[in-house]
């Protein structure tokens, strides 16, 4: 992996009342497992550490985007066969749309939470994914019957963001791989019973998706045991988590 900026790592925990190890541990557990904030309060209390559930919530909102940002440069390259779909996430009592894409082996390409489900949202999602360093220009994109996808792809072709000869397939059974992958994300978001704001939903989902990416073994780290995230977080943040 690349060089970690230790000074930058320490600055993001400046003025916190708890050690960085405790902060990252609780955030990682919340994002990865089906724990509530109050579950984590009890778990840490058994270890002699008193933390309020609102403090853990603030940590999740603050550090989920930081975890995602630090993982991104170290992702393995995905292949050029995209499977795209969206799933539903409740925010403030209303449904929003989580656009997601994986490659033909199930590796995460990218994700994006959107308040709308239309051609513009699909186009923004594709543009966001295409800008990532670990992503290849797709040779084929498999989508469902949502009419916004063909419209978005045509716009990107016209703007020369996608090649003219790209193959778009609307074949439901070929998208089973991403529909199965949605389940891992929904297992974590469903017990949360909805989010209070779009921004906090966006930040939390960044963390959940990143932990799922790590679990899939998409991070380039020599001698990393996939279930053991301690070594990975130690290198990303310069601390034990």
UniProtKB/TrEMBL annotation:
<dbReference type="InterPro" id="IPR001584">
    <property type="entry name" value="Integrase_cat-core"/>
</dbReference>
<protein>
    <submittedName>
        <fullName>IS6 family transposase</fullName>
    </submittedName>
</protein>
<dbReference type="InterPro" id="IPR012337">
    <property type="entry name" value="RNaseH-like_sf"/>
</dbReference>
<dbReference type="InterPro" id="IPR032874">
    <property type="entry name" value="DDE_dom"/>
</dbReference>
<dbReference type="InterPro" id="IPR036397">
    <property type="entry name" value="RNaseH_sf"/>
</dbReference>
<keyword id="KW-0238">DNA-binding</keyword>
<feature type="domain" description="Integrase catalytic">
    <location>
        <begin position="69"/>
        <end position="235"/>
    </location>
</feature>
<comment type="function">
    <text>Involved in the transposition of the insertion sequence.</text>
</comment>
<dbReference type="InterPro" id="IPR052183">
    <property type="entry name" value="IS_Transposase"/>
</dbReference>
<dbReference type="InterPro" id="IPR047930">
    <property type="entry name" value="Transpos_IS6"/>
</dbReference>
<dbReference type="Pfam" id="PF13610">
    <property type="entry name" value="DDE_Tnp_IS240"/>
</dbReference>
<keyword id="KW-0815">Transposition</keyword>
<keyword id="KW-0233">DNA recombination</keyword>
